[in-house]
Write a structure and sequence with these properties.
There is one protein chain. The chain is α+β, with helices and mostly antiparallel strands. The chain folds into 2 domains: about 1-75; about 95-470, Jelly Rolls (Sandwich), CATH 2.60.120.620. The chain has 14 helices and 24 strands. The chain has helices at about 30-40, 95, 140-145, 155-175, 185-190, 210-215, 220-230, 305-310, 310-315, 320, 335-340, 415-425, 450-455, 465-470; strands spanning about 1-5, 10-15, 20-25, 30, 50-55, 60, 65, 70-75, 125, 130, 150, 200, 245-250, 255, 270, 285-290, 295-300, 330, 350-355, 360-365, 370-375, 380, 400-405, 405-410. Helix 3 crosses helix 7. It starts with a strand and ends with a helix. Bound molecules: 2-oxoglutaric acid. 2-oxoglutaric acid binds near residues 255, 286, 299, 372 and 401. 2-oxoglutaric acid binds near residues 199, 299 and 370.
């Protein structure tokens, strides 16, 4: 319900479910009297006890608070989700911007940083790096040296399009009222993301068809096998790399940035516990379903940080590391990391968002410092031709990516394997590790029953024999 204008003669024009109503309104008026006018005339069956206000943030509106034109109001409990104004993307809602919940986004910040945020103000470059073909020499050396490697077209164009289509199907099922063809429906029905970073880890995303489609594409698996072979982990059985079912896949989620929702900066982290796992242990990654640009941003990586930042974390921040209680997610303490010259200091690794085509696979060592990074403020690399000044799309996703990680089965303990089977049966989403089973279904704790009731968790679909072999 949007209060569009208050006419001088004391009427407000209210748009509700696509229809305009004229409501008698003393200007400005109280929420209570506006609601009374509306409910008396048009909304007899809604419960007027609570009003939720959507301006930049949502908040609970007291019944005597003043209502001004331009505010969007929602009654609770609501009938079908109200439609936003056509065309214009809405600013992120409180759900998008809430303080991060759960461990994965512990380092994510409420706002998108700025000059006062030590890790948001480091120079970040939009970088074109070699996109290796599978089997091409050099990918493993690049991975070893810089902490990551890009594989071109792990999904071909048709596969990437299918995957994106299935991701939309998932989003539409989770958020009733969301219609991929109508951007005006996207904002209100969008599932809440983690830490404002546009990361999906709730409502069954870890088991959705889109994810299983990507996981079962042979080229994705083969790229991981190639890196594991080169890294020669001492406890991994090399026979796993070629055997059917020899690699297990992570049950993590994905990332979808609709127009108006930009990923959060400033939460640089590693996904490997510096105390318990000091050496090479995990290759994580993402399949990009969209083409990135300097405008969209994407995944930020700190080059060489697996080798020159990660090994210092335990010595520099012993208390913080120990407080992780064995969890792999470790967010760099912002001010301290900058002060200690770990990030953005002289001689430190370059912060890059690497260019990806739709279907590309980006793999990184879990010790490599990384996070999401929106497009604003990305720099051209010194000496590189300036990147094209793209516009952010308004009618399609600015970014969609599915997280994926494969691990040799010999590194997955039997009790973890049993928990993973249960997680699949439960429709759960876990961390990026296939050899650990920590759930990450982060439904924000302060989500009201009403907010929660707007979304529909999806069960695990029937899985193919190829998919079952990866669990
Ligand atoms: O979306 C991204 O690229 C970053 C994701 C990330 O940092 C994570 O899931 O650990």
């Amino acid at each position: 319900m949007v209060v569009e204008e208050a006419a001088p003669e004391g009427y407000a024009v209210v748009k509700y479910l696509g229809k305009r109503y004229k409501v008698r309104l003393a200007k400005p008026t109280t929420a209570k009297s506006l609601l009374k006018a509306i409910s008396k005339n048009y909304l007899r069956n809604t419960n007027p006890a609570t009003l939720v206000l959507h301006t930049e943030f949502e908040t609970t509106l007291g019944r005597d608070d003043l209502v001004h034109p331009g505010w969007t109001l929602r009654c609770t409990p609501a009938p079908p989700p109200p439609r936003a104004e056509a065309g214009a993307p809405r600013p992120p809602s409180r759900l998008d911007r809430r303080e991060p919940r759960g461990d994965e986004a512990e380092g994510a910040k409420q706002d998108d940083g700025g000059d006062d945020d030590p890790l948001s103000s480091v120079p970040v470059y939009y970088a074109r790096r070699r996109r290796f073909r599978r089997g091409e020499a050099g990918a493993a050396a690049h991975f070893r040296k810089l902490g990551y490697a890009v594989f071109a077209a792990a999904l071909d164009g048709a596969e990437a399009a299918t995957c994106l289509d299935k991701l939309w199907t998932f989003l539409e099922k989770v958020g009733p009222g969301l219609d991929r063809r109508d951007p005006s429906t996207w904002a209100d029905a969008w599932p809440p993301g983690v830490g404002g970073a546009g990361i999906l880890s709730t409502f069954g995303v870890g088991q959705c068809e889109s994810k299983w489609f990507a996981r079962t594409r042979p080229r994705v698996r083969e790229c991981f096998a190639e890196l594991w072979r080169a890294m020669a982990h001492p406890r991994a059985d090399p026979r796993d790399l070629d055997a059917p079912g020899g690699l297990c896949v992570s049950l993590d989620g994905g990332c979808a940035w609709r127009p108006g929702l930009k990923g959060q900066k400033g939460w640089q982290h590693v996904d490997q516990n510096p105390l318990l796992k000091p050496g090479f242990e995990c290759i994580q990654g993402l399949v990009s379903l969209t083409r990135t640009s300097k405008a969209t941003g994407g995944n930020l990586l700190v080059e060489r940080s697996h080798a020159d930042v990660f090994p210092k974390l335990l010595d520099l921040y012993p208390e913080q590391v120990r407080s992780r209680d064995g969890d792999d997610f470790f967010s760099l303490p912002r001010a301290a990391a900058r002060r200690d010259g770990l990030l953005g200091g002289d001689g430190g690794g370059r912060h890059v968002v690497v260019h990806l085509e739709a279907g590309d696979l980006l793999c990184w060592d879990s010790r490599t410092v990384h996070c999401t990074w929106p497009g604003d403020g990305l720099l051209d690399e010194p000496g590189a031709p300036p990147a094209k000044a793209d516009q952010l799309p308004t009618d399609r996703l600015a970014r969609a990516a599915l997280y994926v990680s494969f691990t040799p089965r010999s590194l997955v303990p039997p009790d973890v394997a049993a928990k993973r089977r249960q997680a699949v049966a439960d429709g759960a989403t876990t961390t990026h590790w296939a050899s650990v089973c920590r759930r990450r279904d982060i439904v924000p704790k302060d989500m009201s029953d009403y907010e929660r009731s707007r979304f529909r968790a999806q069960p695990t679909p029937p899985l193919s024999p190829e998919a079952l072999m990866l669990i």
